[in-house]
Amino acid sequence: MSKRKRFIAGATCPSCNEQDTIVVFVDQNVEKVQCVKCDYLQSQAPGEVSGATRQFEQVIGVFNPDEN
């Protein structure tokens, strides 16, 4: 069974610094990122996923279509 791999547009490989060579896929419930040029591989289990917050990001409003 083949894994479905998706290219990440504009991503740069941290190992070989080539752009548009990074694919992401899931293998045994582990998300993996791989460079198709140099075979760099990074994996991240679901429990290790961390949220990213921008320092100066602010929410102006939240649209809720159910509220009238």
How does this model look, in words?
By secondary structure, the protein is mainly β. It has one domain (1-68): Single Sheet (N-terminal domain of TfIIb). It is built from no helices and four strands. It has strands spanning 6-7, 22-27, 30-35, 41-44. Strands 1-2-3-4 form a four-stranded antiparallel sheet, with no helix packed on it. A hairpin with a 2-residue loop joins strand 2 and strand 3. The protein is elongated and about 50 Å long. The relative contact order is 0.18. The model has no long low-confidence stretch (mean pLDDT 79).
Which features would summarize this protein structure in a list?
68 residues, N-terminal domain of TfIIb, YheV family putative metal-binding protein, mainly beta, 4 strands, YheV
CATH fold type: N-terminal domain of TfIIb
- What string gives the helices and strands in order? EEEE
Number of strands: 4
Task: Briefly note the structural class of the backbone.
Answer: mainly beta
Q: Strand content of the residues, in percent?
A: 25-35%
The DSSP helix count reads 0
Could you say what the CATH architecture is?
Answer: Single Sheet
Topology of helices and strands:
Layout: E1 6-7, E2 22-27, E3 30-35, E4 41-44
Antiparallel strand pairs: 1-2, 2-3, 3-4
